[in-house]
Structures are given as C-alpha cells and as structure tokens.
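Take a look at the protein record below with the fold in mind.
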Amino acid sequence: MSKSPEDAIKSMIANMPEKTGKSLTQWLKLAANSKLQKHGQIVSHLKLEYGLTHGYANLVVHEHLKSDQPINLVDAQYSGGKTDLRPIHDALVSEVEKFGVDVEISPKKTCVSLRRNKQFAVITPATKTRIDLGINLKGHDGTSRLLPLKNAMCTHKVQITELNQIDQELIKWLTEAYKNA
C-alpha cells in the first residue's frame, strides 16, 4: 500500500540523520544561516554546498519557509534568472484584463492560465530570455510568428523576448482566442 504524502514526509524526516548525516533541525539551521530567501536559491545552496539530494533539500526548504502566507506563484515563476521577463508577463496580463470582467487570471506553478469560460491562452516563462504565449486558435493555420502546436494544451505558440513584441497583431490573436473561449 502506498504511503500518503504526509507519511512519506515523516519517513524522510525520520531517515534524514542516517541518509544525510544531519537531523532536520540541523539542516534548518544551515538553511537559515544561508541568509537566502527564495526557495530555489536555498535548494541549490544545500545541494551545492552540502551535497544534499534534491528531495531532501526541497523538504528542508519547505520546512524552513513554512508560513501561513500563501506562495505567490507568479513571483516564484519570475524569480532568479527570469526576473527580466516579469514586465512582459505584466504587460500581457494588463492587455488581457482589458477584454472584459470575465477574464480569469489563474496562476499555476509554472505558468499562468488565461481563462474565460475555458482557457484561451497560457503565459509560460520558458527560458531566462523568452516567454512562450500559448494561444487557442482552432482553425488558424499559423504564421512564422504564430507557431502551430500539435498535441498541446494550446493550438499555437508565440515566443516573446521583448515588450515591443506585444503589438496589435498579438493582441488581435489573443482577442480572437478570448472571444472563442
């Protein structure tokens, strides 16, 4: 019988001294002493400096950063090397919010879903220098800029690396997808 997530965490914590050489309390002190504040930065630090596996490092950081405050998924997506992409994300959201009061901005762990009655677009920080904007435009052939996708949640993708690429053509595609949602 498989363990519940809670049981798996308890088991990892119990096995931590044997598997890593330190107790959770000792790892929490090292995480705190790092003075780092972002999840990914602390995980990387524990892995690089102490050779901790990703699973244990992730567990330590989750325990270290536990709070009653909800995690801001968008802030997390645009942390580290992707911070320069945040203005592009914000500009896209600003344009889409103009479509109507029925627009739903729904952050996920790795992307932001743009919905009406159904999803019409997805904003994904794909690399440190590029946002992939997935757009649902069924029946559209695509262009050299509006790339058709197969077997994806969206029918097309536009790669955005600069704010000026959020132009009238892109807004037209988003508007069409919104109206069809």
The beta strands are 104-107, 112-115, 119-125, 131-135, 147-148, 156-160. The chain has two domains: 5-64, 75-180. The chain is about 45% helix and 15% strand.
